[in-house]
Write a structure and sequence with these properties.
With 246 residues, the protein is mainly α. It has helices at residues 6-15, 19-27, 42-48, 52-60, 75-81, 85-93, 108-115, 118-126, 141-148, 151-159, 165-176, 180-192, 232-240; strands spanning 197-204, 210-218, 221-229. It is 48% helix and 11% strand. It has a three-stranded antiparallel sheet, covered by helices on one side. The relative contact order is 0.09.
Length: 246
């Protein structure tokens, strides 16, 4: 009878979000620091997939919350990018460094601001993340949040003393006059060229703001896309009522 490798069984359990199986494989000798054939850590995969229970089990078994998967990707950044607030909370409670940067300099706060993950931004800032740590392009997070159109992110950053308020206000005002759908489509055309079909989807995010999503279609299916929140008017009000300090 073939005995399953505990590490392989652990990754199966992580992919299936089976907490009982995770416990069994750890008890059978699988390391909480296990990596798969691609070099991805079990903790990173659980974090990206939003498996908060599995994440807590791995952390309790000794997984390093700051270990980079494949040497490049942090569990905290993966969870922040996808808006998995409970996972972010678990990683921070286990000692994850809130300002740890990945290979290309992006922090969890940068990912959360880029994607408009307001609850994640609030958790990171409460844990001590620097509200002014530059984004990958060097701009302040408050400006990026204003461009994104996320009042929740802007509100959280302001509450923690984020600078560059005048620049953020100028960006929010500029965005008021733009056609969001046309801007998103133009950005996709710049990357993928003209002549494609597109599909537009509008939905409401966690902070009650409409998001416009434009997908480029190939053979009738989405192959690339981008989205933008539309809370710029509210952001203008927030910034106009806040003291301009930077």
């Amino acid at each position: 009878m073939t005995v399953e490798d505990p590490a392989a069984g652990l990754f199966t359990a992580v992919h299936e979000a089976d907490e009982d199986a995770v416990v069994r494989q750890l008890s059978a000798g699988a390391s909480a620091e296990s990596v798969d054939e691609d070099g991805q850590t079990a903790l990173y995969l659980a974090a990206v997939n939003g498996e908060s229970g599995v994440v807590r089990l791995l952390l309790a078994a000794g997984a390093d919350p700051d270990r980079l998967s494949e040497g490049t990707d942090s569990p905290l950044c993966g969870a922040a990018c996808w808006g998995h607030t409970e996972v972010v909370r678990a990683l921070l409670a286990a000692g994850a460094a809130p300002d740890l940067a990945e290979e290309f300099g992006l922090t969890a706060l940068a990912w959360a601001v880029q994607r408009g993950r307001a609850s994640v931004v609030a958790e990171l800032l409460a844990a001590g993340a620097d509200p002014d740590h530059p984004m990958a392009n060097g701009e302040p997070p408050l400006v990026a949040a204003a461009r994104r159109g996320s009042p929740g992110c802007v509100r959280a950053l302001l509450a923690h003393g984020a600078q560059a308020r005048s620049e953020a206000l100028a960006e929010a005002r500029r965005r008021l006059s733009l056609d969001v759908e046309a801007e998103l489509r133009a950005g996709l055309e710049q990357t993928y060229g003209p002549g494609h079909d597109y599909a537009t989807h509008r939905f409401t995010t966690e902070d009650g703001v409409e998001t416009v999503e434009v997908n480029l279609l190939k053979d009738g299916r989405p192959s690339a896309g981008n989205d933008q929140q539309t809370g710029h008017a509210e952001i203008v009000t927030l910034l106009e009522s806040a003291p301009v300090t930077g």
